[in-house]
Specification:
With 407 residues, this protein is an alpha/beta fold. It has 17 helices and 13 strands. It has helices spanning 22-32, 69-73, 87-97, 111-114, 119-125, 150-156, 177-200, 210-215, 221-228, 262-271, 286-291, 293-304, 309-318, 329-334, 336-341, 383-390, 395-403; strands spanning 13-16, 36-41, 45-47, 50-52, 77-81, 102-105, 130-135, 205-209, 245-250, 253-258, 323-324, 344-349, 353-358.
């Protein structure tokens, strides 16, 4: 783990009130870039069978027996506990926010206002505070009060309608792309607001809606309909009219080739030993190839099926054709380019031992991002440090808050 360089956002303090995916991923991005991220988690509550609940649900998310998502999304963060549903918990968070540059929250709109933590109240305490609000539909508009998850944003933003095969229901990605996009735009907004604050000395609200974050990456979907009446449809593994760009079966596996630009297509034809195809009127232009997309894909796959993945890959490299294998985790861990770029980094957890995860990104030449600390192992692991050193509370004061169910 990186210790010597604190990153481009060294000196920026973030309070993260969010939970699940979108808010915490925004915090992860800022933390990777060097910000001090203080994550506020709800404490466990007393029940008939003792303590129960508490903490971000992400602590228990993941696939299979080992729940490791938390280790990624909570890296570079400190955990404090605070019960936002009681006045004492709300007050201690107000005190934290007085010392913060950025607040992240992804509750249903209106929730933090009920707790006395809305933007007006917080800017009265800290006028320079930047408030990142991630929600399903945004903070305004007729749908703003509706509950919204990432998948709903993907549907409304246009993503789900065009993903999958035409004869099947809409598909989803194997990751929570709607949440991640909204978090990324929230992070971008926070960085832009930090720059604006240098001129104005004022904070502001960054409103990142899940459906609008998805809408941003929908390319020309809406203009195509407005101008030409075209409604994009699900087209499986290809983009309609963009050819050749597909996954092709080799004798021992699948391989992705993207040769949909004229000069690149000519190089693919040379690699196939069919240079005449590059000047064949049926395939010579982008429009012509798009009109004969399946015909061209079948022609290419008839060739790839006679070769192994390694043989096709060697030819693609030799002829400078964009192409690549379809990777899973084992492939990433074995790949020399991943290793050379340090795209994966190994950490050691007291619970899980040594394992690798994706490194911080993007890369900086002078102020590199990095993983400086593991995800907090327990709820409120940093209560003494944060409440003691930042707020000046002694052990007795923290114990009193704990006894009152506030932390």
């Amino acid at each position: 783990m990186q210790e010597e360089n604190r990153g481009a956002l060294q000196g920026i303090r973030v309070i993260e009130l969010g939970q699940l995916i979108a808010g915490p991923f925004c915090g992860q991005l800022l933390g990777d870039m060097g910000a001090e991220v203080i994550k506020v988690e709800p404490p466990a509550v007393d029940g008939p069978n003792g303590k129960s609940g508490g903490g971000d649900p992400m602590r228990n998310w993941g696939h299979g027996e080992h729940k490791l998502w938390w280790e990624v999304v909570a890296r570079n963060k400190k955990s404090v506990s605070a019960n936002l549903r009681v006045p004492q918990g709300q007050e201690i968070v107000r005190k934290l926010i007085a010392h913060a540059d950025i607040l992240i929250e992804n509750f249903k709109p209106g929730t933090i206002e009920k707790w006395g933590l809305g933007p007006d109240a917080l800017h009265a305490i800290n006028p320079r505070l930047i408030i990142v609000r991630v929600s399903g539909y945004g903070q305004t508009g007729p749908y703003s009060s509706r509950a919204g998850f990432g998948g709903i944003g993907e549907a409304m933003g246009g993503w789900r309608a065009i993903v999958g095969d035409a004869d099947r229901p809409p598909s989803r990605m194997g990751v929570s792309i709607g949440d991640s996009l909204a978090a990324t735009y929230g992070c971008m907004g926070a960085l832009a607001a930090l720059h604006a604050r240098e001129r104005t000395n004022k904070g502001q609200v960054v409103d990142s809606a899940l459906y609008e974050a998805v809408l941003q990456v929908m390319e020309s979907l809406v203009p195509e309909y407005m101008v030409g009446g075209h409604v994009r449809q699900r087209t499986g593994s290809v983009l309609e009219g963009v050819a050749p760009s597909n996954v092709y079966q080799c004798s021992d596996g699948e391989y992705l080739i993207g040769a949909n630009q004229d000069a690149v297509f000519a190089r693919l034809c040379a690699a196939m030993g069919r240079p005449e195809l590059a000047t064949d009127p049926r395939y010579a232009t982008h429009l012509a190839r798009g009109q004969r997309q399946k015909e061209l894909d079948d022609l290419i796959e008839a060739w790839t099926r006679t070769l192994t993945v390694a043989e096709v890959e060697a030819l693609m490299i030799e002829h400078s054709v964009p192409a690549g294998r379809i990777y899973g985790a084992p492939d990433m861990l074995a790949d020399e380019h991943f290793a050379a770029r340090e795209a994966l980094v190994e950490v050691e957890s007291p619970r899980w031992g040594k394992f690798a995860m994706q490194n911080s990104f993007p890369k900086f030449s002078d102020t590199p991002s990095g993983i400086r600390s593991l995800a907090p192992q327990t709820i409120g692991e940093h209560n003494a440090e944060v409440y003691g050193e930042l707020l000046g509370l002694d052990e007795a004061a923290i114990a009193e808050l704990k006894a009152a169910g506030a932390v």
